[in-house]
Design brief:
The protein has helices at about 5-10, 20-25, 40, 50-60, 60-75, 90, 125-140, 155-165, 185-195, 210-225, 240-245, 265-270, 280-285, 305-320, 325-330, 335-345; strands spanning about 80, 100-105, 115-120, 145, 170, 195-200, 225-230, 250-255, 275, 320-325, 350-355, 360. With about 350 residues, the chain is of the alpha/beta class.
């Protein structure tokens, strides 16, 4: 068996993860000869449980390897190992890279420039807007987006990228044949059909578990060229990805949020601690010396407005976020008309409610 086969085989043996594979790799000088090593030698491997050693002895065969490959064909799934030239180069150099990645889609994306976008699974309207806007504008510039295909910010980051015309990479906390959450299966199919890629370090038949998501986050950070936190609470799981990014030497960006919003406490905190504040895609591009020409950002498109709509837009531009009562004071219009106009402006994509009847220009 070659080394790729050995990593594939080991990853399918119950109880073995990337840490155990690393222990085996460290113990033997040449893992590609692992299939001809004696059972006695396997039982000598240190720091591995007896149960796992028995599983290795029982399943270490070319017959089982053939069954594994047939099952991958059945699921139309491919794989790449750390020994392969197609393995993501940036990921290979982190502290704890997975020895094998299973995937569906365009493997060439794994070594292209990309920005990770992550955030809350229960975002505010503001967070949804920011994820969509920034992702779509980066995508329109040819920048691929990587995220975790969870509900919330992940979902809208992938969606914005697809709408912008570039490719998106999704890293799962389960196997590809058992995607989590199930409601995002349609998104997963769209990613593949749009020449994106779905990734997982877990073999077919692996259900999502809470502990798998932090491990998934190291892959998101490892493959990316930088990590953007769109919206996160003070104890958000997104901050785990940020810590990985710092360990990996990646740029960390964050979008500021409403100081009264619980969902922005994490984002605002990491900006104070040194993450780069992002108010537009320009803040990201300048870190990589990327210059774009003749590409309009969404805010640059002209939209026809009525006299009262223009008045409210001007007031919000001049004053920032305002409660509806203050908008009434500035415009001298009654609150019923104001709410109707604000609703129209939200539909037109110009204004967003930040919560508690506080409005801002998108």
């Amino acid at each position: 068996m070659n080394m790729d086969d050995m990593y594939l085989l080991l990853s399918h043996i119950k109880g073995i993860g990337y840490k155990t594979i690393q222990k085996i790799d460290d113990y033997f000088t040449d893992i590609q000869n692992f299939d001809i090593v004696s059972d006695e030698e396997i039982y000598k491997i240190p720091n591995i449980s007896l149960k796992i050693k028995k599983n290795i002895v029982n399943y270490r065969s070319s017959t089982y390897l053939h069954e594994i490959k047939e099952n991958l064909k059945k699921h139309e799934m491919n794989y790449v190992t750390i020994n392969n030239s197609n393995y993501p180069k940036r990921l290979k150099h982190i502290y704890d890279p997975p020895h094998i990645l299973y995937f569906k889609g365009n493997k060439n994306l794994l070594n292209e420039f990309c920005i990770a976008m992550i955030g809350s699974r229960k975002p505010t309207n503001y967070g949804v807007f920011c994820a969509n806007k920034i992702s779509k504008e980066l995508s329109a510039l040819g920048i691929n987006i990587i995220s975790g295909m969870a509900v919330g910010i992940d979902y809208y980051s992938h969606l914005g990228c697809l709408n912008g015309g570039s490719k998106t990479i999704a890293v799962l906390g389960s196997s590809i044949d058992m995607p989590y959450p199930k409601q995002n299966i349609h998104l997963m199919n769209n990613i593949i059909e749009s020449e994106g890629i779905i990734l997982s370090e877990y073999p077919p038949g692996t259900e999502a578990r809470p502990g798998y998501f932090p491990m998934r986050n190291r892959i998101i950070s490892g493959i990316s060229d930088g990590v953007l936190i769109v919206e996160a609470s003070e104890k958000s799981g997104s901050l785990i990805t940020m810590n990985y990014a710092l360990d990996h030497g990646k740029n960390v960006f964050a979008i500021p949020g409403n100081i009264n919003s619980f969902m922005s406490k994490g984002s605002n905190k990491i900006i104070k601690e040194g993450a780069k504040l992002v108010s537009s895609v320009d803040d990201i591009l300048e870190e990589y010396d990327i210059v774009y020409n003749n590409v309009k950002k969404e805010s640059e498109y002209q939209i026809d407005l009525s006299k009262d709509e223009s008045k409210i837009v001007t007031i919000l531009k001049n004053n920032g976020s305002l409660h509806v009562d203050f908008i009434c004071e500035h415009t001298k219009l009654n609150i019923k008309d104001i709410l109707g106009i604000l609703n129209i402006l939200e539909i037109k994509g110009i204004v967003t409610e930040l919560g508690n009847k506080i409005y801002s220009i998108k």
